[in-house]
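Forgive a beginner's question, but would it be possible to get a protein, spelled out as residues, together with the matching structure tokens, please?
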Amino acid sequence: MIQHIAYTLILGKPVVMYMGIITYFSFIFTATIGLLNFKGYGHIIPFKWHPRLAATSLILATIHATLGLSAYFNF
């Protein structure tokens, strides 16, 4: 079931690929918020968003891993 969702094509590419791209950018945004606050530019994006975005990134990564592994373990 999950395998069918993971490899459903959107614009000719599987959903698992798009999920990976979204996850990657989520981790980049999380790191950027931490770096900006570390360098003293905290007024741009408040630090309270860093843990929230980190949790979101981990959830997205878990979903992406589940979709990717579904091809091998037939979830």
In short: The chain is about 75% helix and 5% strand. Residues 15-39 form the longest helix (25 residues). The chain has one domain: 2-73. The beta strands are 9-10, 13-14.
